[in-house]
Amino acid sequence: MGNNSISTVAIIGAGDMGHGIAEVALLSGFHVVLQDINDGALNKGVMRINESLGKLQEKGIISAEQLQTIRGDLFQTTTDITDAVKNADLIIEAVPEIIELKKELFRAIDAAAPAHAIIATNTSTMRISDFSGETKRPDKVLGLHFFNPVIMMKLVEVIKCGDTSEDTMRAGLFFCSMLKKTAVRVEKDVPGFIVNRVQAPSGILLFSMVDAGVATPEEVDATVRMIGMPMGPFEIMDYTGIDVTYHACTYYAETVHRDFGPGRVVEEKIKAGNLGKKTGMGFFDWSKGRPAIDLTKTNDAVDLGDLIAVQVNEAAKLVEMGACRTGDIDRAIVNGTGNPFGLMAMARGMQPPDLAARLEGLSEKYKKEIFMPTESIRKGLYL
Question: Is 35 helix (H, G, I), strand (E, B) or coil?
Answer without folding.
Answer: strand
